[in-house]
Specification:
The complex is a heterodimer. By secondary structure, chain A is an alpha/beta fold. Chain A has 9 helices and 18 strands. Chain A has helices at residues 18-27, 45-51, 72-80, 95-107, 214-223, 231-235, 266-269, 289-292, 301-312; strands spanning 2-7, 10-11, 14-15, 32-40, 58-63, 88-92, 112-116, 118-121, 124-129, 134-139, 146-150, 166-170, 179-186, 199-203, 226-229, 256-260, 277-282, 295-298. In chain A, the strands form 4 sheets. A 7-stranded parallel β-sheet of chain A has the order 7-11-6-1-4-5-12, with helices on both faces. In chain A, helix 3 (72-80) packs across helix 4 and helix 5 packs parallel to helix 9. The longest helix of chain A has 13 residues, at 95-107. Chain B is α/β, with parallel strands linked by helices. Chain B has one domain (10-221): Rossmann fold (3-Layer(aba) Sandwich), CATH 3.40.50. Chain B contains 6 helices and 13 strands. Chain B has helices spanning 44-58, 75-85, 101-115, 134-142, 195-201, 242-251, and strands at residues 7-13, 16-18, 40-42, 62-71, 89-94, 119-123, 146-156, 159-166, 169-176, 179-183, 206-210, 223-228, 237-239. Chain B has a 9-stranded mixed β-sheet with strand order 9-8-7-10-6-1-4-5-11, sandwiched between helices. Chain B starts with 6 loop residues before the first strand and ends with a helix. Classes of the chains: A alpha/beta, B alpha/beta. At the A-B interface, helix 3, helix 4, strand 7, strand 9 and strand 10 of A face helix 3, helix 4, strand 7, strand 8 and strand 9 of B. The structure holds flavin-adenine dinucleotide (FAD) and adenosine monophosphate. Flavin-adenine dinucleotide (FAD) sits between chains A (204-206, 230-233, 244-249, 261-263, 265, 267-268, 271, 282-284, 287, 300-302) and B (20, 44, 127).
């Protein structure tokens, strides 16, 4: 039997949607008993949200004043101090999980399996490498604890009509003070969240300015879509960094992805390979994006995008 | 006289990887990816890490930049490039075996204990294995702070302020030094190497340390069972105009 601990990511009172996908990966392993660990400073609401997730057997709420902000250096020793009770520790492959999980792995003296896209069995996993150009099957040693991050785009969130028991504890792990939270500048948006939106519209370098990007936002709003961007658009300052899609940005799997003025570099494509339908609008018919697009339209985006918006209204 | 407002040394990791422009292919026998005759380069994130270290030194906030690579003897090429960019000294920890992230972190810890850097800057991930682990692991083993995915780094005395690229936006943390920072793409734009610098770099010291000399404790390894090609998406249809696009979307129930 596998005894899997899932580390909960949460921000401002809300359980992050990536947790329900990480649980789905854990639940795909035979005979798994799943515990969610919630590290908080006394806030009970996160554990209650976690307890609703199907397939979860119990929730551990660990209180500590230092848990006010999710710092890897603060959470890792608390996880390491309880890890011996588990065969696996999973976290989402979000910036939270990528920051935290390797720190836990090192404290437990094991390598981490990054970006699990499939659990073949309890110790054998498939994961993308080389920006998704190859898929590696890796096997952990049977007697060592498995530490992994889960590629959330590969999993459907479990439903939430469960009522798992919640156990509240406080942590007596040694917590360092060498790392201090200063501030978080979160992009505010009323649009659907890029990582969970069913439709996403993205713009690239071709937009040529922050002002021009308004036509992307406007189309997205008509479609009820989230908005993304290529790295080139972020680097040029047209949009903030949290909108980057790709190998080093967000890996997403919407039902519909519309790439506008994006060439389709491999580092961008790796972020959308699980999308349902890909639409590409590009003036260069040779652009690599057309190799993967389900529907392509060749032409000038500044003409096409307003027209498309009108047609969809 | 003690200088307290200056770091003595910055250690930077340079990994030799398949160049990011190469379209990587899996070998027919599933044993790995094709690397024969393929262009190799410094991991792009590590170039950014080195650029940051050089800028810190050029601002007068550090005395020395040391670049480290772990792997086969060929890694000397990437170390020479690092020296040509402006690093003062290079160390190759030589091993013919593949070095996994935990072993890499343990080797770096052994070097940290020899060199006592005030700061270690690594890339946020190596673009071959896409692991994104080594910096966090080194920080854990060293029991020091980590600031991953850095897009801005300011040193002030014995602490640093780091802005990190996180999923919701930008997070700023303050860390005591020594510490480990991992570089994200927007931290800076690395400089180009000039020909005279390549000549100068030939005279800079490059130490070769056999891995066996470092007494690094082994850890449980992950076994690479097989490498396969990813599923390819099929090329779809090209429509003529917006009306065609809308019709195609409607057909799929997407509009
Ligand atoms: C280590 C590393 C990691 C990276 N990670 C990422 C990542 O996570 N995400 C990412 O996106 N990139 C990433 N990149 C960068 C990537 O390689 C490309 O440089 C980037 O994706 C290009 O962005 P783009 O398609 O917007 O720009 P370009 O490649 O410049 O393409 C612009 C496209 O717009 C088209 N166009 C121009 N004008 C018009 C018009 N008027 N109408 C219609 N079409 C027009 C052009 O034909 C062209 O195809 C990474 C690179 C490296 C080295
Ligand atoms: N063999 C290596 N030689 C030098 N630096 C390395 C090596 N492996 C990893 N690193 C450093 O650690 C970072 C993260 O690597 P990884 O955890 O493998 O994704 C890289 O960007 C390098 O800075």
């Amino acid at each position: 039997m596998s005894n899997i601990l899932v580390i909960a990511e949460h921000d401002t009172g809300t359980l992050n949607p990536s947790v329900a996908k990480t649980v789905a990966c854990a639940a795909s392993i035979q005979d798994a008993k799943i515990t969610i660990a919630v590290f908080v400073n006394g806030d009970d609401s996160i554990a209650l949200q976690a307890a609703k997730l199907n397939a979860v057997d119990n929730v551990l709420q660990i209180n500590n004043a230092a848990n006010e902000h999710a710092l890897a250096a603060v959470i890792a020793p608390q996880v390491a101090s309880i890890a011996s009770r588990y065969s696996h520790v999973f976290g989402p492959s979000t910036t939270f999980g990528k920051d935290l999980m390797p720190r836990i792995a090192a404290l437990l003296n094991v390598n981490q399996i990054s970006d699990v896209m499939e659990a073949i069995d309890s110790h054998k996993f498939r994961r993308p490498i080389y920006a998704g150009n190859a898929i590696l099957t890796v096997e952990a040693q049977p007697d060592s604890i498995v530490i992994a991050t889960v590629r959330t785009a590969s999993y459907q969130a479990v439903d939430s009509d469960n009522t798992a028991p919640v156990e509240v504890q406080s942590s007596d792990a040694d917590i360092p003070s060498h790392t201090r939270f200063v501030e978080l500048k979160a992009g505010k948006s009323d649009r659907p969240d890029l990582q969970s939106a069913s439709k996403v519209v993205s713009g690239g370098r071709a937009l040529a300015s922050a002002e021009n990007f308004d036509i992307i936002y406007s189309l997205a709003d008509t479609m009820g879509a989230g908005v993304g961007a290529s790295r080139a658009a972020v680097d040029a300052g047209y949009v903030p960094n949290e909108m980057q899609v790709g190998q080093t940005g967000k890996i997403i799997a919407p039902d519909l992805y519309v790439a506008i003025g994006i060439s389709g570099a491999i580092q961008h494509l790796t972020g959308i390979k699980d999308a349902g339908t890909i639409v590409a609008i590009n003036k260069d018919e040779e652009a690599p994006i057309f190799e993967v697009a389900d529907i392509g339209l060749v032409g000038d985006l500044f003409k096409i995008v307003p027209e498309l918006e009108q047609a969809l209204k | 006289m003690l200088e307290i407002d200056k770091l003595e040394k910055i250690l930077v990791g340079l990994k030799r990887v398949v160049d990011y422009n190469v379209r990587v292919r899996v070998k027919a026998d599933a044993s790995g990816v094709e690397t024969d005759g393929v262009k190799m380069s410094i991991n792009p994130f590590d170039e950014i890490a080195l650029e940051e270290a050089l800028r810190i030194k050029e601002r007068g906030e550090a005395d020395e930049v040391v670049v480290v690579s772990m792997g086969r003897t060929e890694c000397q090429q990437q170390l020479r490039t690092g020296l040509a960019m402006g690093a003062d000294r290079a160390i190759l920890v030589e091993s013919d075996d593949e070095i996994d992230s935990l072993t890499g972190a343990k080797i770096l810890l052994a070097l940290v204990e020899r060199e006592h850097p005030g700061l270690v800057i690594l890339g946020k991930q190596a673009i071959d294995n896409d692991n994104n682990q080594t910096g966090q692991m080194l920080a854990a083993l060293w029991d020091r702070p980590q600031a991953t995915f850095a897009s801005e780094l300011t040193i002030s005395g014995d602490s640093a302020t780091v802005t990190r690229e996180v999923d919701v936006g930008l997070e700023t943390i303050e860390i005591d030094l020594p510490a480990v920072v991992t570089a994200d793409l927007r931290l800076n734009e690395p400089r180009y190497v000039k020909l005279p610098d390549i000549m100068k770099a030939k005279k800079k010291p490059l130490d070769i340390v056999p891995l066996a000399d470092l007494s690094v404790a082994p850890a449980p390894r992950l076994t690479s069972v097989e490498y396969t090609a990813p599923e390819q998406r099929q090329k779809g249809v090209i429509v003529d105009d917006v009306a065609g696009l809308v019709a195609a979307l409607k057909e799929k129930g997407l509009a």
